Amino acid sequence: MNKLKYIVFTLLAFLVFNCKSSKTIAGGEANLNLNAKQLLKENAKSTPDFKTLQSRLKITYAQDDKVQSYTVNFRAKKDEVIWISATFSVVKALVTPEKVSFYNKLDNTYFEGDYKYLSDLLGTELDFQKVQNLLLGEAIFPLNSNAYEVSVNDTSYILQPKQQRELFEIFFLLDPVHFKIKSQQVSQPKALRHLQIDYLTYQEVEKQTLPENIKVIAVEANKETIIELEFKGVTLNEDLSFPYKIPSGFKEIKL
User: Fold this and answer.
1) What letter would DSSP give residue 246?
2) Which among 14, 4, 17 is positioned nearest to 102, based on CA atoms?
3) 128 lies in which domain range?
4) 3-state SS of 86-146?
5) Would you report the helix, strand and coil content of the chain in percent, each value rounded to 5?
6) Which CATH number is 98's domain given?
7) Under a CB-based contact definition with an 8 Å cutoff, are residues 194 and 204 in contact?
8) Per-residue pLDDT tens digits for 71-128
9) Residue 204 phi, psi (nearest 5)
10) Quick one: pLDDT band at residue 140, thresholds 50, 70, 90?
11) How many other C-beta atoms lie within 10 A of the C-beta of residue 49?
């Protein structure tokens, strides 16, 4: 099962990227005087705009005092498809809005299904759009200034619904300089679940603001899983293909 978790968390990482000409965004003059409408307008201006990307991604996975790091290659067409290949094509995956599919040559198995396993693993319901938003530094739930209220601390805007949902609570921290999300958190107190995505640094890639280092923390009861993502070597808007075929004879697994 741990091997399956490594593969699934690899799927989480496909749409965040770096670039040869990228540079880490340094601090600047903070503006902590915006209301919710103004803040969300500034945030919307920085939404990434691209057609395709190709990149390498380093993933560090930690659970139960066990740590594993590895690097994958991936290609993506925004809003449509994600394709990944681990070293020597040992693991390949194809992700679309309709399904998640991957195969593993180490044990000759494959999976093809929906987002239920991924949602259960992170403790909140996910789909293709939410995963893409999570990895691009975008909110996983729609942000409407009429439904959210804003407050501030010394370093961040705090954005939360005027009325929290019955089964879970949502919080966003936004940077007062470039107005991207610094952290987004979904808590389910009754189920003892908490999902936190921290955007440790952002970078400028071809005049766009994109995450550079992300830390994902998923907690359920007393079990904690931490995923750290480092994004390297992206090229944007090239003509890409997405070859994928499950080898014959592989055994289907059910998650």
Assistant:
1) P
2) 4
3) 2-238
4) CHHHCEEEEECCCCEEEEECCCCEEEEECCHHHHHHHCCCCCHHHHHHHHHCCCCCCCCCC
5) 15, 45, 40
6) 2.50.20.10
7) no
8) 898 788 999 988 888 888 888 989 899 998 999 999 999 999 998 877 876 777 889 9
9) -95, 120
10) very high
11) 11
